[in-house]
Amino acid sequence: MMTYGQSGNVQFPARRLGRLWLLVGLTLTLVAFGLAELGVDPVFVSAWLVVAGWVAAEWSRNAWAWVFAAVAMAGHAAVALGVAHGWSHAHALAHTQAVSGFGPGLYVSYAVVVLWVFDAIIGACGLPWRRLHTLTRGFVAFVVFNATVVYGTWPGKVLGLTAFGVLVAVWWRGRQPGLPSGSSSRAS
């Protein structure tokens, strides 16, 4: 199983697993769109897919979990723009301004999607990308934290902050997600 930071070619089983994660992410995005027909908020569901994928990727240090999380983020952006804003960038910009007080924050969301997907592709191909990945992880953590605080419902804020707290504890105890296997500072 490929973990963060490995370089070299991805072996066939890893590619197969990567395709599976990609299909799962795309399928769940389509499910989130379909939930609108059932009265469930697909933006909420897709946002939690992003958080769950992000936590799983950071916890497991699995590059394909990172791919899933990146696909979930791209799916969430599509669901939010399509369902909540009727594919209107102007409406999304006005909504971002009304909710957060910073309309250009929408461009930050676009940037995190592009950077995260690019980072996931580079990592899934087994190319060395440690500096880019470290930057991406920090940017994603910043955006997920702020999105949870700004856009989340109170139960969502509590769950999101709890998930963030778990990751801070993981990072603090020295697990250091993002390092190649064997490079962790964990005591055995």
Describe the largest sheet.
Answer: none
List the domain count as a whole number.
Answer: 1
What is the chain-wise order of helices and strands?
A: HHHHHHH
Please work out how many helical segments DSSP would assign: 7
Low-confidence stretches: 5-13, 179-188
What does this 3D model show about the protein?
The chain has one domain (about 10-170). About 75% of the residues lie in helices and about 0% in strands. The chain has seven helices and no strands. The chain has helices at about 10-35, 40-60, 65-85, 90-100, 105-125, 130-150, 155-170. The two termini are about 20 Å apart.
Descriptive key words:
disordered C terminus; globular; single chain; 188 residues; 0% strand
